[in-house]
Amino acid sequence: MLMNFCISLIFLFYFDGLIQENLLTGFDSLDLNPTHLSIQDSVIIDQRNDFIKQRLFENPQDSSLLEFAQETLVFSHLLNYAKGALMSNDRLGLIYQYTFSNPFKALDSYFQALSIAEENPELSDLQWGIKGNVGLIYYEQEEYGKSLKLFQEVAANSRESELTALLNIGNIYGAIHQNDSAIYYFEKALLFQELHSNPVQLANLYSNLSLIYVQEQDSVNALDMAQRSLNLVDSLDINFVKPTAFANAAMAYLLIGALDQSEELAIRSLKISQQQGNIFVQKVAWGTLSDIYAAKGNYKQGLQAFQEFSLLKDSLNNQNRRVEINRRQMAFDFEKEHDQAMAEIERQKLQRIYTLGIAVLVGLILMAIGYIYKKRRDTRTEISEAKSRVLIFETELKLLRTQMNPHFIFNSLNSIGDYILKYDPESAQDYLSKFGKLMRMLLENSSKDEISLQEDLEFLDLYLQIESRRQPYKFSYSIEVDDKLDVTNVLVPPMLLQPFVENCIWHAFPEKNKMGKIEISFKMEEDTLHCAIEDNGVGRSRGQVSGTHQSMGSAITESRLRILNQRLGWDGKLQIIDKPFNSGTQVEISLPLILAF
Amino acid sequence: MKRIIFIVEDEQHCTDRIVEFLKPYQSKIDLYWFDSVERAKKEWENRSPDIVFLDVRIGDRTGFELLAEISLTDFCLIFTTSFEQYALDAFRFSALDYLLKPIDREEFEKALNRAFEKLDHQQLKERLGVLLGHLSQVPSSKKISLPFQGGFIFLDIQDVLRCEADSNYTHLFTVEGKKYTVSKTLKYYELLLQDFGFFRIHNSHLINLRYVNEYSKTGYVTLSTQLILEVSSRRKEAFSKAMGLFLNG
Fold first, then answer.
1. Which of A84, A387, A445, A555 has the fewest Cβ atoms within 10 angstroms?
2. ipTM metric
3. Topology at the third CATH level for domain A392-595
4. With the CA atoms of A264, A270, A271 and A273 taken in that order, what torsion angle do they form, in degrees rounded to the nearest 10?
5. Number of Cβ pairs closer than 8 Å across A and B?
């Protein structure tokens, strides 16, 4: 009589079909920096979850995965990445379930995962895999009703997980000794094509079927199924399935009385399950060994095996009794962790708000600085523009003054030429020295913005002296200055009048036998200086006919006056009056009266 | 006794012009002309001239170099120059005679007559000292020569407290309280002294800024002698600026 009926588990419910090709080499590439998380990091979280699953399948004893999975969960929360959190909880469940054999912690993780799936409808497809895992735990805890209900739900709703659900339903029926139903579901499962491409599940199914047939005392089918499962397990070296497959096969061999083979298989199962820390399988293996030794008549060893069996069974029962305590502890721990996680999230939120606040503040300060800078720059630009305007004015003025020089110089050179033509070296000599003096004054004056009226008068006088000496009987001149004017103190722009005087001399008196007269006067009227040049010549209309360059000098003066008005806000005026009956021209210039002192 | 006249001039047409102007005086003079500093220097000891027309620029040398190389006896020195502004200022400081080219016959006659009357060769050594002091690139205490009581008085420019206009005359006051009157306009001294820390605060007043003790915004300066002078309203702004520049070096 069999002292136990062990139904081996369909392992790793959620692993099947999920072993993916993206074999990751290690943790390093999946590192996350908790202070610099970004949306892109959700990809890394996905990769981390895939990685855990894979590692867990390859090596279920790797306890370092726990920390890694917990970290992944925290990151998921920090990122508010629901899918990541769901998967991490699922992985934690798997780790607690298989690596730490702690079903209660595993259940807590799974329930976390399920609550996330409920909150996020788009993740509801993921619930079936988790429910399958929960069903497995209930199954392990021998809460078959709950387990069956879950698996049936999974089988009905998830095409993807239907097969594993069916297999587990079969297992449950096996466990509750409804062997017909078990066989029915297992046969149904065998019809799935995908099962045959998944040797892990197939080996499990064969192993489980063999167990059912053992319970049915159907030794032929039991052995057949056991051998199929052993072939698969051995040829593919599927470690996970090995302990249960060996345990179940041991029972099949025991059934047909192949005691040595059975013992060998049971011991192999025991060793591997001891390595894996799987108490449940160890218990089954000891049970089988106890039966084998009993059948062999080796009662001493049989008793020892039974004692081991009982010990493990008690331990498992104790575990069951600890369920509630553990669950409460778990709930408390979880609450604590949850609070901590929430606190962390709050802290992050607060930090974000602070960061945002500081960023806004810095932004405002930068804007203010920018504004001030711009304003200053604008002011500077304005100043420099004003400066450059002044510069342009001054340059223009200088240019205009120097433009006048060649005009005057060439006229004077013509005069000297006249003397040479007339074979009068003495006069040429005198003329030249006067001209030299005039040139000196011209050069000095034209570099200045303003000179005293006295200096300007000296210049005009010298100029008129020279010109009247050149053409002795052509014209006479007079310069009248208002007594009220302090000529040393009144400032005028240099040589403003000279071009008009020049015009008179060259163009107003074409008639040889008529003595011309040029009258220059300076008068003061309140704040205005009136300068006038009057001639009794032929007037502009006739004068212009004889001289084409007449307007050059006066045009320059006009431009100068315009610039001075613009620049200094003067209201200087230039007026050229034609006297009636072509009896001459009168030029009037009025300037603001500027005093040096 | 004939006067010995030297013309040191590298441009022939300038020499010709002076020679031309000197024709009426042929009987009274012995005329020598040289076109280089070296030749003039060689003849100098043999002839010791009474009147020298000396060009400022002779080839690649200057008339000042010649003066530095000869032993100075009293002779009448008349510079001839074209447009060396720096030299003109130096002539004015030293009250030495100069003629601007092209030389005007009238001015030539005046200068020559002064020379014949021996009016212009007194204290030549001191006046040349003033001249060379102004031409020197090395900063030294610059002096000014003032024609005074038929002779010359030499003042350190920085001992001049102020100048005051009196129509075509100018009174110069020293820090020691001495007063000299010269027949030049205030404008003449303004142009001469403005680069030496002098500022014209008024139509009638040119002051040495280093002796300003106080300036009230109402427009009065107090000099170190406690003399209070008015700053003309149009000059206030410029005065503040000049004062600031002066104080800041």
1. A387
2. 0.70
3. Heat Shock Protein 90 (3.30.565)
4. 140
5. 38
